[in-house]
Amino acid sequence: MLTLENIHTYYDRIHALKGISLTVEQGEIVTLIGSNGAGKTTTLNTISGILTPKEGTVYLEGERIDHLPAHTVTHRGVVQSPEGRKIFARLTVQENLEMGAFNRNDDDGIASDYERVLTLFPRLRERIKQPGGTLSGGEQQMLAMGRAMMARPRILLLDEPSMGLAPILVEQIFEIILEINSQGTTILLVEQNAQAALQVAHRGYVMETGTIRLSGDAKTLLADPQVVEAYLGF
Amino acid sequence: MKKGLNTGLTAFAVLTYLILIGLPTRLEGAAQPVLALLLALFFFAVLRSQGKEMGRGELLQSGLVAGLVAGLLVVAEIGFFVGLLADGVKIQPVFDKVVPLNMAALLNVRAGAIINGETSLLAYAILTAYLTGAGLLGGLLVLFTRSGTASTVRSTRIPGGRWLVILLPFLLFAFIYYLGLDGVKTFGNDKNIVRLLLVLVATGAGLFALAAAKEGVEKLAIGGLLAGVLLFLPFVLNQFQNSVMSIVFIFVMMGLGLNIVVGYAGLLDLGYVAFFAIGAYVYAFVAAPFSSPYISSLLTGMGISPDSPLLGYWSAIPLAMITAAIGGVLLGIPVLRLRGDYLAIVTLGFGEIIRLFMLNLGDLTNGPRGLLQIAQPTLFGVAPSALTSHLDAQGWIFLLAIFGSAVVAFVAIRLNDSRLGRAWVAMREDEDVAQATGIHLVQTKLLAFAIGATFAGLAGQLYAARQINIFPENFSLFVSIDALALIIVGGMGSIPGVVLGALALKGLPEVLRGVDEYRIVAFATLLIVMMIVRPEGILPSARRRRELHSAEAPPPDESDVSDKPTDGQLEGGRA
Ligand SMILES: Nc1ncnc2c1ncn2[C@@H]1O[C@H](COP(=O)(O)OP(=O)(O)OP(=O)(O)O)[C@@H](O)[C@H]1O
Ligand SMILES: [Mg+2]
What we know:
The complex is a heterodimer. By secondary structure, chain A is of the alpha/beta class. Chain A has helices spanning 40-48, 70-75, 93-100, 107-120, 122-126, 137-149, 167-182, 194-200, 218-223, 225-232, and strands at 2-11, 14-24, 29-34, 55-60, 63-64, 78-81, 155-159, 186-191, 203-208, 211-217.
């Protein structure tokens, strides 16, 4: 469904991605793990069109999307839930969610997705009229995910959804990710929490300083001694 | 206690300002009671919003403290000035309104007493008492207007208060009409000014009436009635009053446009006057082609006489709009990537560049000599002032300005409710996230600049017609500042707020002629006071209010909205 071939992305002279190739198949959860500064967020931003690669191609179902502007990529069904609880702080929860459906005009579909999101995140329903900025960190993370889902993505790019959450909430978030996936959304999941990510994912990629070090079946990676040593910390 | 102190300090700043502009000198013997009354109203407004959760005692204490603080500080200040005056220190060059007469009016003594240094402590004490009393009165007014015991914290209004608010503008308009009748001698020589003041107040009161009206039929009916009365005004006011009101409503059009750029889209544009100038000059080019050396020689070369207008007022409208819109896009493109302060600085430069063009492209714009004898708008080819003796030339401009403001307001309301309006909100909140939700940033930004510019262009065209002769200095930075100040004072993002801001900032200075020279100081003071007392503006949009008060108030729900009808619930668009 989504294919990256030999992607090179730069920040001016900083060579952040040095030839990334990966694929995500329809219906999968694929996780991208790696240490801080490995280039995970850069990879997601390159896919979603916020950054443009200098070299390489991104295909969405066979069509190139690497030179499309971000809003067009969103329109094609690739929707990112950005890192660090990027929400509209002064808009209410409801307005945030509505904003997620900006590019849609199927009112019935929007209404049913709205219900779906609020069912997935009951906390948001309780705080529906509250400005996004007054939510707790975890709730903001949920809001960012919910907003992304309101675009009815074909593929959802999640950037560290468990960042800074209490263990109980982390567990909940991963359950919700599984739930979203089982409802038919393909997911590319960037995570620091390698253990949990590999447990929910079908496949995984391990990044290191702008390249893919390892890739494979999630179960295999979980057992891989290199991964265990570097990221799982036993 | 602390709140009372703060309020007192703010009141002191306001009073100092009033003293420095020489208001007491004008009020003469009535200075003390009038100032005290003004102050009481001020305290009332502040305490009403601050004191929602306060009990009776606490409220009165706050008022008392505020009044006492303001009183003592003002008295100390006056004492200082009086001391300087008695010593013969020349303070006139610095504060030209601080003269013995001013101080004498404040203390209710003879001017001679000030000069000779014979002021008694009693005079100071009386002034302090007046101002302290104002604080108490403010607190009492709050208590009085919220019925029930102090334990019911939620403020409810006196019964019938809503209808009073709704009726007030109509009563005022009726009185204005009465004052205009032949043979009415009330107010003697001051009648012109008083009538203008009443018109400004009545129009402002109309906005509050509209806010107080219940959604639905009631709002429609009252809105319709107010519109009818407003359209009637140009026929009953005199030339002077009409000319002030026409400039007020021209600035309403400008403010509504700038409100789109700054209020809706969050792009701080300080060069907004550029589009106003473009509209004015484009109209002047076609309506007074003989004034421009270049255009008139061009026309002569083509065998067309430059002596008559190329286009009438109405057919020039699309031209002015399109040219201004192009200007908006031209400004927009280079600043697409700029945010915040950088944007403000670049746009500021843009405004100045346009003015310098006007000044230096002498062939085209006739430079500082300006474009003269701009043709007046007509209605199907005739000047309405020729048809009826009740409508003078300025009244006709005023009528057009009301009409233009209504059209512009309608477009602004529709835009706010539209997809584009939501894109602006998203962009204002966070450009990156907006982009991630699929908003086309470039297009959204350029549309904000272009639409805002179009409104300013329309206003500029009417302004050129109003002025008849225009010069580059009509389009200085101060026009941008005026426009920005009025939306800040009125309430960013709110359409009624823009009208109120224009009434206050473009209308009131005409009433207090002497204040005009202090306009900059007036704006600065007003802005500072506003930011402290009511940062969301006088008639804010519901969203702004929520944004600025989310920390102190629980999230608003529907019951909250219907609870406070006079508190400016109307908004430029959706609630
Ligand atoms: N805007 C930027 N300008 C310059 N360099 C950047 C920028 N953003 C990221 N980088 C650099 O690119 C590299 C990859 O950053 P990236 O944000 O993709 O890391 P990451 O894997 O998401 O890390 P983390 O887990 O900490 O979020 C880092 O070395 C970072 O310093
Ligand atoms: Mg990252």
